[in-house]
Design brief:
The complex is a heterotrimer of chains A (181), B (242) and C (598). Chain A has 181 residues and is an alpha/beta fold. Chain A has helices at 16-22, 27-34, 64-76, 85-89, 101-111, 155-167; strands spanning 5-10, 36-37, 52-58, 61-63, 77-83, 131-136, 146-148. Chain A contains six helices and seven strands, in the order E-H-H-E-E-E-H-E-H-H-E-E-H. The longest helix of chain B is centred in the middle third of the chain and has 17 residues, at 78-94. Classes of the chains: A alpha/beta (181), B alpha+beta (242), C alpha/beta (598).
């Protein structure tokens, strides 16, 4: 029997959740025994080469690239997990959600106190992803199957949940592992 | 002598002083009923509905309903636990609760309830309502993003003449806590600190202090709200206030 | 108003903070708003903080801290108003003035307001407190032009005053009564003062209570609590003083029967208050009159004066020894929730109209902490007839559990909207036939807080044990879009009228509205349908009746018109986020000047 396949990505996140993933420390060795990684910064595979069993999504969606990537993950992964506060509710990037995107761009590129942009150049190259009107939690774009809160989720929780999903057993979490900060 | 009454909580026989509120009566009998807007020593408001129990098959708030002889009270049922979870989830989606950026994190009672209930994500959509942060007062930050409108500050913090310092303003979705313009200007250090302590979340913060307790040592880092230790901790604090 | 003038107003109310609503109404009457500076003066005069003044002021729809114009138009946006063409009228106001609702132009303000109790003559508006009915776009433009000429509000009436007492010197309104069917409450079989002088004077309070208990009379406000038992509780309660309230805060959209009773039978109502006060041992009575009916205030005060002169009110009414009772009128300031009895008491104490926790019940600890009974207008009128004819007489009318008659406010799609007094126990079909309704698709029984009923249930009986109602019946014919027009309008109403205290009531109606919007846009899935049902279930843990019923438009339409939802739901999708990438990038692309390439 082939091993379950895991893919991971970071959308509008800071890679902190991935760092916490690495914090499972020596259990990584156990994990490698249990699963195979596909598209993920962990093994640096850039594109999906096969359908996966579990997809971990860090970060919410702030631009069109995030949307396309999230949708691709949904297509390629049987189980999709919102991995961290940003994936669940937008996180700190979503602090812009009650400010208009116009105002945000103005502040960032034209009138901010640390902005130097004498020619008033705005990021409008065709190659760039387009900015969304607000930051969207992942489950507002596609169906998400599980949510792991935390900024970042604790390494213990990541391990317990992954382990349970891989072995298809009930998830039982001790009090201390669920944290939102 | 105080009159005692007998009643049941989840079929367990209990006794308590007649007229005491169900929340307190349950605690005396070793049963924890989650609360949020309730604060010892302050008139209960019954506004958050987290402490909803069933009394003789009717939904009532345990913080405002006195026990009576023969009451049959349900607390720990699947239906009630789900309703409590839902209230907490609603509060997380109504305000803008960025726990990682909040200095009350770890000591926040809203968060503590969510930890205790093991809420992984709210069932409701995040509303991203526009809320103000008022930093204009000399002593305190008033962050409406985090306010859960529990009225604890309204009820517990009054000036020396008993006048209101905080009050509700507006109604329905637009309801907000308002800090009195004049009394806010002259707020004493003592009252500012009290307001911060009374606030279950990080909506009222005293300026120039914060992040004092390291992660791991905060109130709810290791011990769930409502367990023996935290209950004692809380009631000790309250005695100190009185 | 100068500071001194404000202080004079405060003095008139003995600098009593529990009269804050009256104080604010009087101060606002000068120019339609209350400035921050005035709030300061009021707070100082009442020895309370400014936030205390502001908490009350900001709660009520008709108070404002900003100017709302020399003329202020409050145009009803309730369901029936919409059905009768409100949007055309609203459009005409906006176009003529060049501003939107919620704004002021040329010193004329236009604002929305919920049902003003004129569902039989919609579209209707309140203009500087005066009622304008049967509005059209033509009239809207005409009214604005009259305002530009600086005319007095009454000069703008286009027709003669309304029927009967509506045209009396002290009312002078164009409102019509539309009484289509009378019974013991609305018929002519009532002689002012007779029952008090000839009957009440000979009875003990206990006898009065027993007679009312014998009648099995139940509260007509909607909840149906037995009146005699309420009185008995209050009589037995200990307190230095007791209060009797008449709840004339008729705010349930589609109801207008109390307005007609107040106009036509105020003597009977006030005598009912005397009877109730005598029974419970109250020395003071308060008629809590909704602001929308303030045009009746002078007239009602005059009726009270006459009663005092006739010896039926004040010291020893009807010559009864050891019984003193007088009535004052307390105006509301625009809040549906104040129809809930404890919210009404809070409001009469000058506070926000937030319902109280029970216990204690008002009969134990009500107004200012004293035992208080709150009765509906119609209940108190029925009481007079119970004293006149005996409890047995009332019990012989209606059904076993619903005795006597019910005054119904019928509106919507029928030939003869108006007031119908019927013995309890009639079916919906009977009413439809009586009011001349054809092709009826649904009937909203008991207003938005009641039920949307489908034709399969039209043989159901109106009574407390089947379909209870406070009296509002809105008939909807086949031309109506029940979800878009009815359920949405009612849900908006409840979103607006929540006091904001309980977490579910403050949030759930909005979330349900968003779900319904998704479903109506064709983006809904079965999940939205199930979520709506589950989430609406949370409303049962709210504190008060409004909170318990605020999801009823959704709940009862889901129950009784399930197919309307199912028709709009995407059957073959189990998830649809509704996310639209094109509209999500539109603003940023425009700002950076690029074409969206999706």
């Amino acid at each position: 029997m082939s091993k379950p396949v895991i893919a991971t990505t970071s959308l509008a996140g800071c890679f902190g959740c991935h760092m916490s993933f690495l914090d499972i420390d020596d259990r990584l060795l156990d994990l490698i025994e249990l699963v195979e990684f596909n598209k993920s910064p962990i093994d640096d595979i850039k594109t999906f080469t096969k359908d996966c069993d579990i997809g971990l999504i860090e970060g919410g969606c702030c631009n069109t690239e995030n949307i396309h990537l999230l949708k691709e993950f949904r297509k390629r992964c049987k189980i999709l997990v919102s991995f961290g506060e940003c994936a669940i509710m937008g996180g700190l990037p979503a602090m812009r959600n009650d400010i208009s995107v116009k105002e945000c761009l103005e502040e960032a590129y034209l009138s901010g106190p640390s902005t130097v942009n004498e020619d008033k150049i705005l990021p409008n190259d065709e190659e760039l992803p387009m900015i969304l009107d607000r930051v969207y939690p992942c489950h507002e774009i596609v169906k998400m199957d599980y949510h792991l809160p935390g900024c970042p989720p604790t390494a213990d929780m990541i391990w317990i949940v992954l382990h349970a999903l891989i072995l298809d057993v009930d998830i039982e979490l001790p009090y201390e592992v669920i944290k939102y900060d | 002598m105080e009159k005692k009454v007998t009643f049941t909580i989840d079929n367990k026989e209990c006794t308590a002083t007649a007229g005491s509120f169900i929340v307190d009566a349950a605690r005396k009998n070793g049963i924890y009923i989650p609360t949020l807007c309730n604060y010892d020593g302050v008139k209960p408001a019954g506004s958050c509905r987290v402490c909803t129990v069933k009394v003789n098959k009717r939904h009532l708030t345990a913080c405002t309903t006195p026990v009576a002889e023969g009451m049959e009270i349900e607390v720990d049922t699947a239906e009630l636990n789900d309703l409590r979870n839902a209230v907490v989830e609603l509060l997380f989606t109504e305000g803008n609760h960025y726990c990682p950026a909040c200095e009350k994190s770890g000591d926040c009672e809203l968060q503590a309830l969510a930890y205790r209930f093991q809420i992984m994500a709210p069932r409701f959509p995040f509303q991203f309502n526009e809320r103000d942060i008022d930093a204009s007062h000399p002593k305190i930050y008033h962050d409406h993003n985090r306010c859960i409108l529990c009225k604890r500050c309204i009820r517990a913090v009054k000036d020396k003449d008993g006048k209101s310092i905080f009050e509700f303003n507006n109604r329905a979705k637009e309801v907000r806590i308002k800090l009195d313009d004049k009394l806010g200007e002259t707020l004493s250090d003592e009252l500012a600190l009290k307001a911060m302590e009374v606030c279950p979340v990080g909506s009222i913060l005293v300026k120039e202090i914060g992040f004092k307790t390291p992660i791991g040592k905060r109130k709810f880092d290791r011990i769930p709200i409502g367990t023996q230790e935290t209950t004692e901790q809380l009631s000790h604090k309250e005695e100190h206030h009185e | 108003m100068t500071t001194t003038e404000i202080q004079t107003v405060l003095k008139k109310f003995r600098n009593d903070k529990t009269r804050l609503v009256d104080i604010l109404l009087e101060i606002q009457s000068e120019n339609g708003f209350i400035s921050k500076q005035k709030i300061e003066t009021i707070a100082e005069g009442l020895d309370i903080s400014e936030v205390d003044v502001e908490q009350t002021m900001s709660f009520y729809h008709f108070f404002s801290c900003k100017p709302r114009g020399k003329y202020t138009i409050y145009l009803n946006n309730s369901l029936v108003a919409m059905m009768k063409g409100r949007e055309k009228v609203a459009d005409a106001f906006e176009k003529e003035l060049g501003c939107k609702f919620g704004e002021v132009a040329e010193d004329i303000g236009i604002f929305d307001t919920s049902c003003i109790g004129m569902s039989d003559q919609e579209p209707a508006a309140l203009i500087n407190g005066k009622v304008f009915t049967n509005l059209t776009s033509f009239r809207a433009r005409e009214i604005i032009r009259d305002m530009r000429k600086g005319m007095e509000v009454e000069e703008m009436y286009a027709n003669t005053f309304g029927d009967s007492k509506n045209s009396s010197k002290l009312v002078r309104s164009v409102v019509r009564n539309h009484i289509k069917r009378t019974g013991p409450i609305l018929d002519q079989n009532f002689q002012t003062g007779k029952i008090l002088q000839k009957q009440l004077a000979l009875m003990t309070p206990e006898e009065v209570i027993n007679e009312v208990k014998r009648s099995h009379l139940r509260g007509r406000g909607g909840a149906g609590f037995p009146t005699g038992i309420k009185w008995e509780f209050c009589r037995r309660a200990t307190g230095k003083k007791k209060y009797l309230f008449c709840n004339a805060d008729e705010g349930e959209p589609g109801t207008f029967k109390d307005r007609v009773i107040l106009t036509e039978k105020p003597e009977m109502l006030f005598e009912g208050m005397v009877v109730a006060a005598y029974a419970i041992g109250a020395s003071e009575g308060i008629l809590y009159l909704r602001y929308e009916y303030s045009y009746l205030k002078d007239y009602l005060e005059d009726v009270l004066d006459k009663m005092r002169k006739d010896g039926n009110l004040g010291k020893n009414p009807a010559g009864i020894k050891d019984f003193n009772f007088d009535i004052r009128i307390q105006l509301g300031a625009g809040a549906y929730i104040c129809g809930e009895e404890s919210a009404l008491i809070e409001s009469a104490e000058g506070k926000r109209g937030e319902p109280r926790n029970r216990p204690p019940f008002p009969v134990e600890k009500g107004y200012l902490g004293f035992p208080t009974t709150v009765n509906n207008v119609e209940t108190l009128c029925s009481v007079v007839k119970v004293i006149q004819n005996g409890g047995e007489w009332l019990r012989n009318m209606g059904t076993k559990d619903s005795t006597g008659t019910k005054v119904l406010s019928i509106s919507g799609d029928c030939l003869f909207p108006g007031i119908y007094e019927l013995e309890w126990g009639f079916s919906i079909n009977t009413i439809l036939e009586m009011a001349g309704a054809h092709n009826t698709q649904a009937v909203q029984i008991g207003g938005p807080s009641g039920a949307l009923v489908n034709p399969d249930q039209f043989d159901r009986i109106l009574c407390y044990s089947d379909l209870a109602t406070g009296g509002s019946m809105i008939i909807l014919d086949e031309s109506r879009d029940l979800l878009k027009d009815v359920v949405m309008n009612f849900t908006d109403f409840f979103i607006e009228e929540s006091c904001g205290s309980c977490v579910p009531c403050r949030n759930i109606p909005t979330l349900l509205k968003n779900k319904l919007t998704r479903i109506l846009e064709g983006k809904g899935t079965m999940k939205d349908f199930e979520d709506s049902q589950n989430w609406a279930n949370m409303m049962q843990i709210n504190r008060c009746g409004l909170g318990h019923t605020a999801a009823n438009p959704i709940i009862t339409s889901l129950e009784n018109f399930r197919h309307l939802y199912e028709d709009k739901i995407q059957k073959h999708k189990d998830f649809d986020s509704g996310f639209d990438i094109a509209s999500a990038v539109a603003e940023s692309c425009e700002f950076v000047d690029r074409d969206p390439n999706i």
